[in-house]
UniProtKB/TrEMBL annotation:
GO terms for cellular component: cytosol. Its EC number is 3.1.2.12. SUPFAM superfamilies: alpha/beta-Hydrolases. The lineage of its organism: Bacteria, Pseudomonadati, Pseudomonadota, Gammaproteobacteria, Oceanospirillales. NCBIfam families: fghA_ester_D. This is S-formylglutathione hydrolase.
Length: 275
């Protein structure tokens, strides 16, 4: 593992790291904020949205002051493999680089897109090996938009690993939204039965459960009606007894101005559950 940069912030350390991933077959970059003080610290994973890298939330998420106060280690992976022969789709922001959808692709040409395995196996193991202060017995996960979809689906599929989950403006039902079903079809093939494992509502319909979710959603989000539709998630949770706190936030859009406003609330939500 290579350290690309480190800087002190609020007494902790914001680092950026790169390693050769055996899972994606590419170099992968990720960011880790280690709070001040003595570890071990609970590990909170932040998954970013379409077009993002590890960098966007580092620059605009405003998580460090509260993470330092609460003693949370924040890990921010990239959203897809990049470089070499990775299918980039530079003409389409919803596919390819920056649009890994946190799944394991099965279609020809997309062999590098293995973000689900990368986040469930390889990156946690790397973290355990290189960050002595990371307490992997206390992990939470949150994310934004496509990363909210990643957080909800990873939590629903791995309830024994994650003790807490929340999301900002998540894609809750990618199978039935035009802008995300295209990605599922491209990465997983034409049969929608294969998409269910990467769709939060389908997972709930199929019996997966998680302790409790917090979701914040801006009412002025331009993707609200076509892509996000949190009311569908609310219906699925209500009809199955899945615990959900959904907060509609008047006036807020899809941007990091929205995310940073509610970042402290989410960090408290996780800290309460991670101890
Ligand atoms: N590129 C898209 C917008 C993409 C977008 O809003 N991405 C969100 C995640 S879904 C994001 O976090 N963008 C990066 C940023 O705001 O820094 C467009 O032009 O409509």
């Amino acid at each position: 593992m290579e350290t690309l940069s480190t800087a002190i912030a609020f007494g902790g350390t914001q680092g950026v790291y790169r390693h050769a991933s055996a899972t994606t077959g590419t170099a992968m970059t990720f960011a880790v904020y280690t709070p001040p003080g003595d570890g071990p610290f609970p590990v909170l994973w932040y998954l970013s949205g379409l077009t993002c890298s590890h960098q966007n939330v580092m620059d605009k998420g405003e998580y460090r002051r509260m993470a330092a106060e609460l003693g949370l280690m924040i890990v921010c992976p990239d959203t897809s493999p990049r470089g070499g022969d990775v299918m980039a789709h530079d003409d389409d922001w919803q596919l390819g680089c920056g649009a890994g959808f946190y799944l394991d692709a099965t279609t020809p040409g997309y062999q590098h897109f293995q973000m689900y395995s990368y986040l469930t196996d390889e990156l946690p193991a790397l973290l355990g090996a290189y960050f002595a202060d990371a307490d992997l017995s206390r992990q939470g996960i949150f994310g934004h938009s496509m990363g909210g979809h990643g957080a909800l689906t990873l939590a629903l599929k791995n309830p024994e690993r994650f003790k807490s989950c929340s999301a900002f403006a998540p894609i809750v039902h990618p199978s039935t939204a035009d802008w995300s079903s295209k990605a599922l079809r491209t990465y997983l093939g034409d049969d929608p039965a294969h998409w269910r494992a990467y769709d939060a509502i389908s997972l709930i319909e199929d019996g997966h459960r998680f302790d409790a979710f917090l979701v914040d959603q801006g009412e002025a989000d331009s993707f609200l009606h076509d892509g996000l539709r949190p009311w569908l998630f609310q219906d699925a949770c209500e009809s199955t007894g899945q615990d959900l706190t959904l907060r509609m936030q008047p006036g807020y859009d899809h941007s990091y101005f929205f995310i940073s406003t509610f970042m402290d609330d989410h960090l408290h939500w996780h800290a309460q559950r991670l101890g």
